[in-house]
Amino acid sequence: CPCGPVTAFVPWDGRRSGNPVRFHSVPAFAAATELPVDVPGRGTVLVDIGYGGTFYALLSAAQLGLDVCTAKTRELVAAASAVTEAVKKQFKPHHPESEDLAFLYGTILTDGKDAFSEEPTTNICVFADEQVDRCPTGSGVTARIALQYHKGLIQLNQTRAFRSSTTGSVFTGKAETRFGDHNAVIVEVSGEAYYTGTATFTVEEEDQLKYGFFFK
Known about the structure:
InterPro entries: Pro_racemase_fam. Keywords: Lyase. GO terms for molecular function: trans-L-3-hydroxyproline dehydratase activity. Belongs to the proline racemase family. It is globular, with a radius of gyration of 19 Å. It is α+β, with helices and mostly antiparallel strands. Strands 1, 2, 3, 4, 5, 6, 7, 8, 9, 10 and 11 form an eleven-stranded mixed β-sheet that branches. It has one domain (7-191): Diaminopimelate Epimerase, Chain A, domain 1, CATH 3.10.310. The protein contains two helices and eleven strands, in the order E-E-E-E-E-H-E-E-E-H-E-E-E. Helices cover 14% and strands 33% of the residues.
């Protein structure tokens, strides 16, 4: 991935793959917590900034007067996008290894249930050009776990369930091990995955660039 190597695990019964599939994240960490951000037209809110392969701003939808479980998606998207733009103007993330990764990718609105519980916590991830993820988001779950661990709300190897407010799909996540500085953790994210298509790549002998090329 652009953020680095991610190890995936897929069950195999000798005939076909199955579920759940899971992956181990790149080192994930909290970049900021309870950061005051002035969102034009919506007031000052407190956001957390978490890195789970990319940087996200995270906050409860209630701070914006919305319920992430019942509000219309277009309302959540508008609110999340306003937060993203405000954070971009007021906070510059830093990545310890690559400044190419030091940018805010989007905002995750949650139900505010960050403390460990057996019950799923719901969120919606609005990223890039106001795109909405159909799932709880792999890098988003990773960022949420990293923040919860940083705040002492979840312990290593405690599994938490995360639900998408748009489709109801569920991922689970847990912080498996600590990694290096920044109180970083490697997070395992698990969920269901299905084939949606296949692709075939062909190399022809006459192709002068068939083995690739370098830029000097």
